[in-house]
Amino acid sequence: MKLTTQTDYALRTLMFLATRDTRSKVADIANLFAISTNHVAKVVNLLARAGYVHSTRGIGGGIELALDPVDISVGEVIQLMESDTHLLSCVGTDDSCLIHSFCKLKKVLSEAERVQQEYLHGVTLAEVIPTRRQFNRVESA
C-alpha cells in the first residue's frame, strides 16, 4: 500500500497538534513542513468532520486535537483518508481478472492486508509523535 499525500499531511498534522498545548494555525503546520496551506486546510477540514480535530474560528481561534493521542489509531486515520488500501484491485472485488476462480495470490494478499490493517489499527498517535523539542529544532532551522 502506498499512502496518498493527503494521508501523509493528515498524519503530520495530527503529530504536530499532539505536541502543542495551545491552538495552532493551519499556516503553522504548512510552514513547518513546507507544504501548501490550502492542502493542509482541506486535510484539517476532513479531520475535523471525523472528530479528530477541533477548529475554532475568529480571533484567538485555531485548531487543536479533539481527542487524546492515545485514542487516535494510525490505522483509523489511514482508513479515513484513503479510498482504497488494497494491494491489488482483485483483493477488494470479485471477478476483476480472468484467473480469479483459481488464483491463490488473492488469498495471500488479503491476508497481508489483514495483518497490515490489524497492526496499523493497534498503533496510536501517542506512539508516533515526536517530542516538542524535536519539532522546535525543525521550526528554528
UniProtKB/TrEMBL annotation:
One Gene Ontology term, aspect cellular component: cytosol
PROSITE patterns, A to Z: HTH_RRF2_1, HTH_RRF2_2
A GO molecular-function descriptor: DNA-binding transcription factor activity
Pfam families: Rrf2 (PF02082)
Gene3D superfamilies: Winged helix-like DNA-binding domain superfamily/Winged helix DNA-binding domain
Keywords (A to Z) from UniProt: DNA-binding
Record keyword DNA-binding present: yes
UniProt-listed PANTHER family: HTH-TYPE TRANSCRIPTIONAL REPRESSOR NSRR, WINGED HELIX-TURN-HELIX TRANSCRIPTIONAL REGULATOR, RRF2 FAMILY
Protein name according to UniProt: Transcriptional regulator, Rrf2
Biological classification of the source: Bacteria, Pseudomonadati, Planctomycetota, Planctomycetia, Pirellulales
